[in-house]
Design brief:
With 542 residues, the chain is mainly alpha-helical. Helix content is 63%, strand content 5%.
Length: 542
């Protein structure tokens, strides 16, 4: 049964069109989508960049711990919304109903331009990066031995943005060279093949997702076990315990932040902490994507809340344990010129491959290739899940007359093939737009904007639609949702100051959707309202 909602200008009636999506996703399938899209390459890499900013074990664990708290609270809030409105498009529908179609469109616009496609591109780039560990010719960088197809040097591409509190304009985009390697071709091949695979049907997509999610979860568990047992280094443990909180004030990020915003050491440390959480938040992101597929989940009023809670809880436990494993094997601080992973420390491991360095310490001959293969499996499954789920949101937008008409149609296999293809093309273009870390910074700010709006929407919908069936109600309401909104908003403000280069462009992209929305409303073709039937009552309480 298709549970889409027709285009409208006011509150949506509790009705749904007949026919369309096939409910083929069980609770296990939906949970694998949550887990599979959360676990990509980030957990194996981002702790290195975070360690360079944070400088000590206490701050590193604090960043991951706070990320876990925020992610789980966010999932609890989304669980209530998903059980209340299990419609294709998920978060787009929540925003549309809480505010207006404009806000739903701004989210869908940002998802297509940056959030979903940028994440897909970033993770595909990470796949190629780790393939380069095994086959250097297929890596992303000429410095790593990649075969270079195009290399334009001497470029002077730059976009500056004046900000009132800075003496000089902020450089938001800069390119001195443009490189295309065989690694880029690998990333493009991954995106094209998975987009086409998912055009064959949700069943094919979920088989790939389940297989790769189970495989990479076992690989991450093996990394944790080895890091906490075989590879434990007493010297690393001692070094990290002796400098639990003290290293942050000597990091380059702290010095840069102090120059921009003079304040007390504690205030600056908290600001640096918020900026460093870009890495952990990105690594824990995409859990909300499962709401896009609500029309294809069996017993959605029960299974959507359960998969969100089970999936995010499992992943965040694994992430905390993984970082404890890193700290048991490697010191946070080290030297960029160090010869061994221990000498380089988490902050300076080669190419930020922290997971590889841990297994290399346990087994020098086995660790590096095993970790490279494990991360390739992880990123492949992550890309597949994001490809599968993203197109469902564009479908919902098109059903409202706010996206290309072709995207709002299902093919003979019951999937939005046009949306999958369009998403794939734009993701491929983004592969050439910047590095992994640049895409990461660019995505997370826009994500936080809509997380805040959606959870605030929970308060609005509680008041505006008190009679809607709510099989699940978020625990700790209104305190936990309020805490979540406060933490997200604080990090957003912090990122605008501490990491402005890619956060300000992300904000501009969100706002650029406003004129596009009104143009689409004026010139777009609104589809006819389909035949409607009442939505069924809740299947089962959570």
């Amino acid at each position: 049964m298709n549970t889409d909602i027709p285009a409208h200008d006011g509150p949506t009636p509790l009705v749904a069109p007949v026919g369309g999506f096939q409910q083929r996703l069980s609770l296990f399938d939906a949970t694998m989508l949550v887990v599979g899209t959360m676990i990509g390459s980030g957990i194996f890499m981002t702790s290195a960049d975070m360690a360079r900013d944070l400088g000590s074990s206490g701050w590193l664990l604090a960043a991951w711990g706070l990320t876990a708290v925020m992610t789980i609270i966010g999932a609890l809030c989304y669980a209530e919304l998903a059980a209340m409105m299990p419609h294709a498009g998920g978060q787009y529908v929540f925003l549309r109903e809480a505010y207006s179609p404009l806000w739903g469109f701004l989210y869908g616009w940002s998802v297509f331009l940056v959030i979903q496609t940028g994440s897909i591109a970033a993770v595909a780039v990470a796949f190629a990066k780790f393939l380069g560990v095994l086959l250097p010719a297929f890596s992303m960088s000429p410095d790593a031995g990649a075969v270079t197809l195009v290399h334009l040097q001497g470029l002077d591409w730059q976009i500056n943005m004046p900000l009132p509190w800075l003496e000089k304009p902020l450089t938001v985009f800069e390119r001195k060279e443009f490189v295309v390697t065989l690694g880029h071709c690998v990333a493009v091949g991954i995106l094209a093949s998975l987009s086409l695979l998912n055009c064959l049907g949700v069943r094919e997509g979920k088989w790939v997702q389940n297989l790769f999610t189970v495989a990479k979860t076992l690989a991450l568990a093996l990394l944790i076990v080895m890091g906490l047992t075989i590879a434990v280094n007493p010297e690393a443990v001692t070094a990290n315990l002796n400098n639990v909180w003290g290293g942050i004030t000597s990091t380059p990020r702290f010095v840069e932040t102090e120059a921009l915003f003079p304040a007390s050491a504690l205030t600056l440390s908290l600001m640096v902490l918020g900026g460093a959480m870009v890495g952990s938040l990105f690594s824990a992101d995409a859990w909300n994507n499962v709401t896009f597929t609500a029309a294809e989940v069996q017993n959605p009023r029960r299974n959507l809340p359960l998969c969100l809670i089970l999936g995010t809880g499992l992943v965040m436990v694994l992430y905390i344990l993984a970082n404890l494993a890193y700290l048991a094997v490697l010191p946070v601080q080290g030297s960029p010129e160090g010869a061994t992973p221990f000498e380089r420390g988490i902050a300076h491991v080669k190419d930020d491959r922290v997971g590889t360095a841990v297994l290399e310490a346990a087994s020098p001959g086995f660790g590096v290739p095993f970790m490279a293969i494990a991360i390739m499996i992880s990123t492949f499954g992550c890309v597949n899940g994001m490809v599968l789920m993203g197109a469902r949101l564009y479908y919902a937008m098109a059903q409202d007359g706010l996206f290309f008409q072709a995207v709002g149609k299902l093919n003979s296999r019951g999937v939005p093939a046009a949306g999958l293809i369009l998403q794939g093309i734009w993701s491929i273009l983004l592969v050439f737009s910047g590095t992994y870390s640049e895409l990461l910074d660019f995505v997370i700010f826009a994500v936080l904007v809509f997380y805040v709006l959606t959870v605030v929407g929970l308060f609005i919908l509680r008041r505006r639609m008190p009679d809607l069936p709510r099989p699940y109600r978020v625990v700790g309401y209104p305190f936990l949702p309020a805490i979540y909104v406060f933490l997200c908003a604080a990090i957003m403000i912090d990122l605008l100051i501490v990491r402005p280069v890619y956060t300000w462009p992300g904000l501009i992209i969100v706002l650029s959707g406003i004129p596009v929305y009104f143009l689409w409303r004026t010139f777009g073709t609104r589809p006819p309202v389909p035949h409607l039937v009442p939505m069924p009552p809740p299947d089962e309480s959570v």
